[in-house]
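Researcher: Please translate sequence to structure tokens.
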Amino acid sequence: MAVVLMREMVGETLRELRVGSSKTLREVSGAARVSLGYLSEVERGHKEASSELLNAICGALGVELSEVLRLTSARVEAHENVTLLPVRTPRAAVA
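Model: Translation complete:
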């Protein structure tokens, strides 16, 4: 199973919510009072948002922190439940 990085899952959730609300990075970064570059890094999972910053981003998106955490939890659960197909080995040549 691949390693789950919470910062990536949170970032994906935030980006999904931002795009779903038709807001630009610039709009959200301004409302959350965080640099556009840093918000972009958070959304891409390269930076981990502090609880204060996450709360500010949620406010800028007009969504409760609990909703972001619920959606992120569902994303993590889906990732954990992905089952890989078994690898088939070729049959030995019949001699």
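Researcher: Any highlights?
Model: The longest helix spans residues 65-80.
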